[in-house]
Write a structure and sequence with these properties.
Elements: H1 2-10, E1 30-31, E2 44-50, H2 54-60, E3 67-70, E4 73-79, E5 93-95, E6 99-100, E7 106-109, H3 120-131
Antiparallel strand pairs: 1-6, 2-4, 2-5, 3-4, 3-7
């Protein structure tokens, strides 16, 4: 997310997102269509969670943005790059650019504000809890000592 924001500030264009069906898998893909009145200035990705966990997650999150349903998966809109340094557990699917492998997703929840996003860190922690795994952040680097002044 931070990397995308810095690229925009520097004027670097992000790599183009695949159009429907152009990801090499042969699966039809559709971009989740955000309501036009919402501002997605950070770009957006989607986190797919089995529908059986949807209501539980929604009831425990501090704020919920746009949520789509398709093929027994609930797709939560998060800021672009929310997969960086987060190891989303199985059976979660992460869809960059909001391109999901289903033809007709439908909006089942709209946000209470003008932003379409569900905060990714609380969603990540809740998904890990539901999956029964310990949250795992990006690969640990070498420890650095901080010197005292």
């Amino acid at each position: 997310m931070l990397r995308d924001a810095l690229a925009r500030l520097r004027g670097v264009r992000p790599a183009p997102r695949p159009a429907a069906g152009e990801d090499g898998t042969g699966l039809a893909r559709a971009r989740l269509p955000l309501p036009p009145e919402l501002c997605a200035s950070l770009g957006y990705d989607a986190v797919g969670v089995p529908a059986r966990h949807g209501f539980h997650l929604m009831s425990h999150l501090p704020r919920t943005g746009c949520v789509f349903e398709a093929a027994d998966v609930w797709w939560w809109i998060v800021p672009a790059g929310s997969d960086q340094d987060l190891d989303w557990p199985e059976p979660v699917a992460y869809a960059s650019g909001g391109y999901v492998p289903v033809p007709r997703p439908r909006l089942i929840h709209g946000p209470d504000s003008s932003t379409p996003y569900t905060p990714p860190i609380p969603l990540f922690l809740m998904v890990c809890q539901v999956a029964g795994v310990t949250p795992s952040w990006g690969a640990p680097g070498p420890r650095r000592a901080v010197t005292a002044p």
